[in-house]
Backbone:
């Protein structure tokens, strides 16, 4: 493998990992508040199609990503309503969200199938981007990649040092105690779900506006589900989700790696790699149930209502 | 003010009524949706739900669509009864289709009486194998079955694509990604002349009867039920959890695999990339809508088959995207989960009362438990 190929693989690893990082980050905050939202895949798809349509007609990336985030928030409210207010099983509600949103995205996007837009341009920092091997990966990315880094840092600080972060964790560990302490459990959980929706929407739009600037049905190809596994992988820690997302980005680039090593493997078998990697990661991490439970928010996916 | 009040006992009436209400709300939403799309809503609903089954051929086609959904849903219902969140019927169906096709392509030019049974058995084995992997990962490796089965659905789809582009591709097929057409000896016999309604319907009826017997009459079914409702009670009673979970997963895998085999050796007649328009996922909705009961599932499955047909009809007649099927599916599950609140809560309409405002202001809609 030559230097240029390694440089490009690193660059592509970050780009491939970015949508995973964004969704997983949103889901971590959601799960920290005790809510398991399995609707990430559907919200990503809706974000991808909404962002694409908005961009297609406005030619503005700000409007594109804004529309995607807003769509994510709105559809996540539907989930929040049946999961939080009507106390439906969060697992079932999340699946319902994915099924509904997948159908909606295909329906809304039917007229845009296969159309393209200009891709989100890179914001290259000239001097630094010239650094061999890592320069391109770190300093020649687009705005959303940089945004994802800022969000990781903010989320880290939020949970480590901010009272509000503590409140989210308290609500996720024990909502009854948190409620008795005067924390608005419902509001915090709503906000956490909405935040997850916004990030899933942006992540979807990253696919349709930056990664492959076009819309096709089901273009997320399971990334929302992989992100859910990443949250387990990261044991609900922000800094580890970043590592996980990029590891997965790398695993999805096996065709580039294989090409660099001069191997020829069937494309469909290579396309399985991210899913196989997810399975492998789940298996490795789940060996020790005690350890897993140690990190998981205590009340995750458990219905709760005031006065119980 | 609308207030939810916890019921002392779950409402049986709403247990049965909430699926009906959900279907009604879905139809109502469909009515509004069609109006918003500039269609005449009543005509559109007619095109969607009545026109497809206006004649005997339409009804036979409805049954053809419903067969794979039902086979998957009976199996899924067993899993869900045991609180095993198997989302993998789709993958198990696809693997059944691939395994069945691998055997069927051996018999293309043979008129052996074993061709059809072996093809079906291969399909069942494919589904069981795929489900067994999920069972192993859940029980031995302690992984979350939701994520595992979903990942396995994607892997199965890639195996299917690999198979139709590679080992099972028809050498005389002008490079299309599809297998050779199956020989007549492999195809499932058609039950009624001039229709595509095949032997799978009989398998469906048997599966329904057996799953009803299992749930209602067998001790294993009772154990499954207990396991699903109270894991610690099942443990106390000494039920073998590993055995039960494995059993429900393998039964589901077998049925889904049979569904896959029935598709390739039935209406399709060869292996193609699109052997399932998401039957395995639709079956999840069907299982819930049918209240995990074989009879309820059968009714819900027919409705789901009709939604698939209506989607195709709406595409042809009204020029709407076929994806409208997915919207109806999603809406139905959404409404069902929402309506199910009525099983556990009583809705109280109350005039806003100042003396009550203190405990109502915090969250007027939030369920207030009073136990």
Residues:
């Amino acid at each position: 493998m030559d230097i240029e190929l390694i440089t490009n693989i690193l660059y592509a690893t970050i780009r491939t990992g970015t949508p995973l990082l964004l969704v997983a980050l949103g889901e971590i905050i959601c799960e920290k508040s005790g809510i398991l939202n399995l609707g990430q895949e559907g919200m990503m798809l809706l974000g991808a199609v909404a962002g694409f349509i908005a961009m297609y007609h406005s030619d503005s990336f700000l409007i594109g990503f804004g529309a995607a985030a807003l769509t994510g928030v709105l559809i996540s409210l539907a989930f929040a309503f049946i999961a939080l207010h009507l106390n439906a099983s969060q697992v079932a509600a999340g699946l319902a969200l994915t099924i509904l949103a997948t159908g909606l995205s295909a329906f809304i996007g039917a007229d845009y199938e296969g159309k393209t837009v200009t891709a989100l341009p890179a914001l290259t920092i000239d001097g630094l981007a010239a650094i061999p091997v890592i320069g391109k990966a770190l300093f020649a990315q687009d705005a959303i990649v940089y945004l994802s880094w800022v969000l990781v840092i903010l989320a880290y600080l939020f949970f480590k040092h901010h009272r509000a972060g503590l409140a989210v964790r308290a609500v996720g560990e024990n909502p009854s105690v948190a409620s008795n302490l005067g924390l608005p459990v419902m509001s915090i959980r709503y906000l956490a779900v909405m935040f997850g929706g916004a990030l899933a929407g942006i992540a979807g739009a990253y696919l349709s506006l930056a990664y492959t600037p076009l819309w096709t049905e089901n273009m997320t190809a399971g990334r929302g589900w992989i992100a859910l596994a990443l949250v387990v992988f990261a044991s609900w820690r922000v800094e580890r989700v970043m590592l996980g997302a990029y590891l997965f980005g790398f695993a999805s680039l096996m065709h580039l790696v294989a090409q660099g090593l001069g191997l020829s493997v069937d494309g469909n078998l290579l396309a399985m790699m991210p899913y196989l990697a997810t399975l492998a990661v789940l298996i490795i991490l789940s060996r020790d149930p005690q350890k897993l439970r140690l990190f998981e928010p205590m009340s995750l996916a458990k219905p709760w209502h005031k006065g119980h | 003010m609308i207030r939810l009040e916890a019921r002392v006992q779950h409402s049986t009436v709403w247990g049965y009524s909430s699926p009906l209400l959900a279907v009604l709300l879905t139809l109502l939403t469909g009515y509004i949706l069609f109006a918003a799309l500039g269609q005449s809503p009543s005509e559109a609903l007619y095109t969607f739900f009545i026109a497809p089954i206006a004649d005997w051929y339409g009804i036979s086609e409805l049954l053809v669509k419903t067969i794979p959904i039902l086979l998957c849903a009976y199996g899924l219902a067993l899993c869900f009864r045991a609180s095993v969140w198997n989302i993998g019927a789709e993958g198990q169906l696809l693997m059944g289709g691939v395994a069945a096709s691998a055997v069927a392509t051996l018999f293309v030019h043979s008129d052996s009486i074993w061709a059809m049974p072996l093809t079906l058995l291969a399909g069942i084995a494919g589904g069981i194998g795929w489900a067994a992997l999920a069972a192993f990962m859940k029980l031995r490796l302690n992984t979350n079955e939701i994520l595992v089965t979903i990942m396995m659905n994607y892997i199965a789809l890639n195996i299917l694509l690999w198979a139709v582009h590679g080992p099972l591709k028809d050498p005389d097929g002008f490079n299309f990604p599809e297998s050779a057409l199956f020989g007549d000896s492999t195809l499932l016999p058609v039950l009624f002349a001039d229709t595509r309604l095949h032997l799978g319907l009989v398998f469906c009826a048997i599966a329904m009867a057996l799953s009803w017997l299992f749930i209602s009459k067998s001790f294993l079914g009772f154990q499954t039920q207990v396991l699903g409702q109270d894991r610690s009670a099942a443990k106390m009673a000494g039920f073998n959890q590993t055995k039960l979970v494995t059993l429900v997963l393998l039964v589901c895998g077998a049925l889904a695999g049979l569904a896959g085999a029935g598709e390739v050796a039935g209406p399709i007649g060869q292996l193609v990339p699109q052997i399932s328009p998401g039957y395995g996922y639709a079956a999840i909705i069907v299982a819930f809508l049918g209240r995990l009961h074989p009879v309820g599932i059968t009714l819900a499955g027919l409705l789901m088959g009709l939604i698939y047909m209506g989607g195709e009809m709406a595409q042809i007649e009204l020029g709407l995207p076929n994806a409208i099927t997915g919207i109806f599916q999603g809406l139905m599950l959404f409404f069902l989960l929402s309506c199910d609140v009525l099983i556990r809560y009583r809705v109280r309409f109350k005039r806003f009362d100042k003396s009550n405002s203190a405990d109502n202001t915090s969250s007027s809609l939030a369920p207030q438990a009073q136990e």
